[in-house]
Write a structure and sequence with these properties.
Number of strands: 7
Distance between the termini: 49 Å
CATH topology: Rossmann fold
Helix content: 40-55%
Largest sheet: 7 strands, parallel
Oligomer: single chain
CATH class: Alpha Beta
Strand content: 5-15%
Number of domains: 1
CATH architecture: 3-Layer(aba) Sandwich
Strand order of the largest sheet: 3-2-1-4-5-6-7
Number of helices: 8
Shape: globular
Radius of gyration: 18 Å
CATH superfamily: NAD(P)-binding Rossmann-like Domain
């Protein structure tokens, strides 16, 4: 799919990967539907997009709310007959504190990263916005393969997202709908700026967005990057559990968290 003169919906569009993908796609006469919780940031982005010659609709929405998602996608359906690409990018991440599970953070993580994905897919299909030759691209993470210390909620939510997207890909295949799983490593965004640990192969968001756009146009089954982080994640997946535990504990000791 060539992403020119298309109707494109992006969640989590106010910052980070979602914002940068929207900025880059706005140069090619697209109709962009921007969804996020912070309306003021969406309005700023909308002005830039319109300056680039594309159209933009802005919706303030918490994707974890089924009611909000349903209402907004009905409005979208009244405006547009079809969404050619839905980039479902909304996500949150919380680091857990030593000795505290902070269950509220776990609940919020799953509400946005997993149930937000469910809500969007359900309403896109219910409103017949996603049709034959449309693409759903869901953003998971290379952190979906192991339970990294202090990131258990995030890793578990992304593992759930990856498995769901894999299932959805095969369910929608006969309808001619393509489902893509996007699995970034560390990309410089406001989310990763909060991390207090070293992030190997940290990639500028502009480069990450280009890789995602290129992968969607090629209709890749999985878009994952950077290459060295992909290789590292594959090694970790096949690593014996006992060895992974030892390395995780050493890491915690090295940063004074164990």
């Amino acid at each position: 799919m060539e992403l020119r003169n298309k109707t494109i919906l992006i969640t989590g569009a106010s910052t980070g990967i979602g914002r940068e993908v929207a900025r880059q796609l706005s140069r090619y006469d697209n109709r962009l539907i921007l969804i996020a919780r912070r309306r003021e940031l969406l309005e700023e982005l909308s002005s830039e997009i319109k300056g680039n010659g594309s159209k933009a609709l802005v919706f303030q929405c918490d994707v974890s709310s089924a009611d909000e998602v349903g209402k907004i996608l009905k409005e979208v359906a009244e405006k547009y007959n079809e969404v050619n690409l839905a980039l479902l990018n909304s996500g949150v991440s919380f680091r857990t504190v030593e000795g505290e599970q902070e269950i509220e953070k776990g609940i919020k993580t799953f509400e946005v990263n997993v149930f937000g994905l469910f809500n969007m897919v359900k309403e896109l299909l219910n409103n017949s916005l996603i049709k034959r030759d449309s693409i759903i691209a869901g953003v998971s993470s290379l952190a979906d393969g192991r339970g990294f210390p202090r990131s258990g909620y995030y890793c578990a939510s992304k593992a759930a997202a990856t498995i769901y997207l894999e299932s959805l890909r095969n369910e929608l295949y006969l309808q001619g709908i393509t489902v893509i799983t996007v699995k970034p490593g560390f990309v410089r965004t406001p989310m990763t700026d909060k991390n207090e640990f070293k992030m190997p192969f940290l990639m500028p968001v502009e480069k990450g967005a280009k890789i995602i756009i290129r992968g969607i146009e090629k209709e890749k089954r999985i878009i994952q990057f950077p290459r060295m982080t992909v290789l590292g994640s594959r090694i970790l997946r096949i690593m014996p559990g006992g060895l992974f535990d030892i390395l995780s504990r050493r890491h915690l000791k090295s940063i004074g968290k164990l």
